[in-house]
Amino acid sequence: MSTSKRKSSDTRVPIALLVYDHPGVMMKVTGLFARRGFNIASISVGHSEREGFSRITIVAEGDEATIEQIIKQLNKLVDVVKVQHLHPDRSTMREFALVKVDVKDNQARQEIMTLVEIYRGKVIDVTTKTMTVEVSGSEQKVDSFIDLLSEFVHIKEIVRSGLVALLRGEESITLD
Amino acid sequence: MIKGTAIIKNVLKSTGNTTIFGYPGGAIMPFYDEIHEDAEIENILVRHEQSAGHAADGFARASGNLGVCVTTSGPGATNLITALANAYYDSSPVLAFSGQVPTKLIGNDAFQEADMVGSTVALTKQNYQVKHVDDLGRVFKEAIYIATTGRPGPVFIDLPKDVQNGECTLPDPIPDQVEIIGYNPKVFSTGAKLQVKRALDLIMDARYPLVLAGGGVALSHSNKELEEFINLLRIPVVYTMMGKGVLSDDHPYVLGMLGMHGRKRANFAVSEADVILALGTRFSDRITGDLSQFPGYPDAKVIHVDIDTAEIGKNVPADIPIVADLKLAMEEFLRQLKKRLKNPDKNTINSWWYRYIKELKESSGIPDVKIPGKTGRIVPEKVMFELNKVIQPDDIIVTEVGQNQMYAAHYLNLRKPRTWISSGGLGTMGFGFPAAIGAKVAKPGVEIWLCAGDGSFQMNLPELATVKQHDLKINIVVLNNQYLGMVRQWQELFFEKRYACTNLACKDGLYFPDFVKLAEAYGLEGMRVDKPGDVHDALKQSMASDESFLIEIVAEPESNVLPMLSPGGALNSFYSRRRKKRSIYEWYAKLPRNEFEAKDYKVEIVEDDDVNVYFEKEEQ
Q: Under an 8 A CB cutoff, do A27 and B118 touch?
C-alpha cells in the first residue's frame, strides 16, 4: 500500500497477529507501518476462534532487518497479543478474489467459463453484459488467473481479500 | 452505585497518585467538581495544558513514580500532545486524561471535540477512550499498570463527559489486579542468564572494555548494582545525556557524556573500546554519530541490555543481545562476577586501560573562566563552573533545550540518579520550566535549578504565575544571549553565518525582554548579572531566597557549545573551538596495543580543549 523505502533485497513476508478486538486496534497496527516507513502488501482482518480477539494477516515487505523490526514493533503494541512470522513452507496460505468482466458475446462467455473451471473458480453472477467470477488460492494463482483473463476480456473491477494464512500441522498462535 | 468521577478519584487515591497537574475546562468539569474541597487530592494549576504534561513528566522523572495530568477536551487535549510525545521518547511514566464531548456527540464535530485517540496513537504507549462508566475502574488501573511497568511511557485516556457523570452498576467497580494478555513487562528469561555469562566472558577477556550507561539505568533503579559492577571490574563508564547522574561525575572511572556534544575523553573511550556493554540505551543518532563508523574500534563487540526487544539491533547490531529488566540483569551480572572473582587469575580487567582512563579523567577537568567573552559579556562555561560550586548532591538540575542544555550536560558535575531532568529524544523547548515545577512538587525539600536560554524560557514563561501561586521555589537561571543559540551555532558552522530568524534582539541592541521585570510582574524577585565576577553571589542569593528567583545572565551572544561532532560524522572527529574539524587523536595519543607498549606508558594530552583557547580570534 505505501511505497516508501522499497529495495531489491525486499521480500514479502506474511505475519499473523492475534489482537484484542478493541476499537482503534487496526489504526494502531497500520499506523505503526506508516510511522516507521514499513510497507504493507496486503492486510486482512476478521474474528478469531476466541471472542474478544481478532486475527490479522499482514503481508509485509522489507529486507531481513526490516521484517525483524516490524515483528518487534508489532509485539510492543499492548493490544497485540501474539505475533508470528509465517514461513511459507510451514504455512498454508490463501487469497480470495472477485473479478467482474465485460462479456461481448457467447464465445467470450465460454472462454471465461473454461478458464474458471481450470482455476477451480466459480461463476457467481451473470448479466447479459457482465460476468462475476470468484477464485481462491495462492497469491500467484490469483495473479495468474487475472493475467490470463485480461488477455481476452476487459476486466471492469477486481477485489482481493489479501492473504490469509495458518501454520501447518499442530502449531498455532491461539491463546491456550 | 458510584459516580464515574468518584471511581477516577478513588483509583488515584488507592494508587497513591494524589498530586495532579491540570487545567480545567468544559468537558472535564465533572472531574474537577469531584476533587473540589477534597483534602487528599492536590491539583497544581498550570497556565497552559502543555505545561501540565511536562510538569507531570518532570514529577515522574524526579520521583520515579507516575506523573498525572488532566485537561479538558479539544484544545486542552491537543495542547497536551507535545508533552505526551516528549514523555514517550524519554520513557517517562505519565498518565494523562482529558475530558471529551458526551458519547452521543462524538463524531459530530461538536464544540471542543478533537479525535484524541487518533491523535495520540503514535505518541503514547497505550491509549483509551472509555465508552461506558463500568469500564472506568479497569481502564484506569490498566493505564497506570502499563505506564509504570516494563519500558515506562505515557498512557492517555479520553473521558466523555457522560461517562464521568455516569453511575456505575458494578458491585466492585475497581479491580484489585489487572491482567493484560500478551503484555509481560517483567522480563528476565533463563536464556538471559546464559547471555550474561557469555557477556562476562567477553568483558573479562577484553583489552579495552567500556560501559555505556543510558537512561534505563535510572528508570530501572539499578545504579547501585552498576556502581558495584564497575568498581569490581575497574571498568570505565561513559553515559548518554539521559544517563547523566546515574553514576557520580566524581567517580574516577566515569568519563562523562558521549555523543554530539559529549566530552572528548568519553568519545575517545568509545572509539577505542573493544567491548562495549550498553545498558538501557537506544543508541540514538546523537550518541553514535555515523552508524557505519560506530563503534570505532575494528571488530568491537557490543553487548546490549534493554527491556525493549525492539531497541536491540534497531540502530547498532548487538553481538550479545540481552532482553531484560536492567535491574534483574545487573543482579545476575554481579552474582556471576563475584563467583568468578574468587578465581585469582581472572581478577582484574586490563590494568593499562584502567590506568589510562583514570589519568585521562584526572587531566581534563573544567577550568575557571575569569575573563568575559569577546563582546565583554559572560560566557556560559563560567555559569556552569559557578553552578558546580553551589549545587548540592541532592539538588535537581532541569534544563531547557538548546545550548543551555548542552553546556549543562557537558560541564555540570552531578552525583545522583534523578538529579538530571532534560528533554532528550524529542528535544522540546519549553519543557524545562514546567518540568522544574513537577520536580519541585515531587521533591519539595531540595533546591531545583532551571538552566534555561532566553528562547526556550519564553516558550512557557507564564508558569511564573504557577510557581508564585503554589509557592514553589525554583532557582531560574536564564542565559540570555538574544539568540536561538544552538540554531545560530549551526548556522555559523554549516550555513555560512546566515543567521536566518535566530536573532531575538531588539533593533536598538538592548537586551530584551527584561526578565527581571517579568519576574517582578509575577511578584517574584530577579537579578540581572552582567559581570563574570558576580555570578557566584547571584546564585548564592537565589539559593537563600524563599521564593522562586530569576537570574538573568547577560551572556556572550555568539558563544558556541564545543566540542561538537559534525552532524552525521563519526565520534572520533569533531569541531574544535577554532571551528575546525579535528581528529580526536590530535588531542589524545592512541592507546598502547600490547604489554610492551603499555610499559611505562604515560597519558599525553597534546592540547586540551576546554576553555583556554576559547577567546582566541577566529582563524582566517
A: yes
